[in-house]
Give the backbone structure.
Amino acid sequence: MKSLVSRCPIEEVMQILSGRWPTLLIYYLKQGTKRFSDLRRDNPTISHKMLTLELRKLEDAGIVERTEFEGYPLRVEYQLTPAGHRLVPLIDALGDWWETTSDTSAHPGSTDAEAAVSNTASRD
Amino acid sequence: MKSLVSRCPIEEVMQILSGRWPTLLIYYLKQGTKRFSDLRRDNPTISHKMLTLELRKLEDAGIVERTEFEGYPLRVEYQLTPAGHRLVPLIDALGDWWETTSDTSAHPGSTDAEAAVSNTASRD
DNA sequence: AGTAAATTACGCACCTTTTTGTAACCACGA
DNA sequence: TCGTGGTTACAAAAAGGTGCGTAATTTACT
């Protein structure tokens, strides 16, 4: 399924972090332990299926740990592994870089003609 | 153009860096100025369409600068902007993080089950 | 000399592949 | 029956590949 055979570690990380969900999920999970339904509440635009898929991917990557509790309505908890926690500041650094760049002198001539992406009114 | 309407800068960066090409292209561009055809030679599996699209995206993001020279067979050169150069170590850090983590016995994506599934015989 | 071909960096249209969404279903016990 | 976490099948959408056309000028062939 995901035997990454790329010569370059960067390619491998990007394979895991690419897409809109991985970093978002990590962002929410750094707040602490979350259950499946918590994460769905955190970002309501992710579909049930995507959430399972992405969580599985992060699990396989050793970023997230899944803990299943016996019980009536089956409870599962997700949390960052130590490696996952070490990843957080690196992701944050990217965010900082972006803020700095857009701030200073990056893309000046932004013809933001086709901006208008529908904002799904979720909030932080 | 960075007309991304997300509340979170991390989401915005990931929108740019997601996929297999952006970081690869940055990787090659950090070696210096490259022409379109150079980049195609650097990684021959990218199609000309993808290369133009990705370069355009990186340009809009202020990571890459495009210089067009007048002339017969039209020459165009690409190079990292200062912001692009500042991005490089951050990406490298992700690569380092991945190497470190995979080292500490995490998630080698190859559970024997799935290893059996895909034999990497003739894969592009 | 005249015409055809090649070169470089694309744009565009068409088609395939991959990813993602939708929805229905499973199990369990209150 | 509901709610939990999850799977599967199918449909829609997005990503990506292929190949042709274009510009302007040099070179290659006849």
Remarks:
- Residues 107-124 of chain B have pLDDT under 50 and may be disordered.
- Residues 19, 47-50, 53, 71-74 of chain B lie near DNA strand D (CB under 10 Å from a C1').
- Chain B touches chain A through 52 residues (CB under 8 Å).
- Residues 15 and 103 of chain B are 28 Å apart (CA to CA).
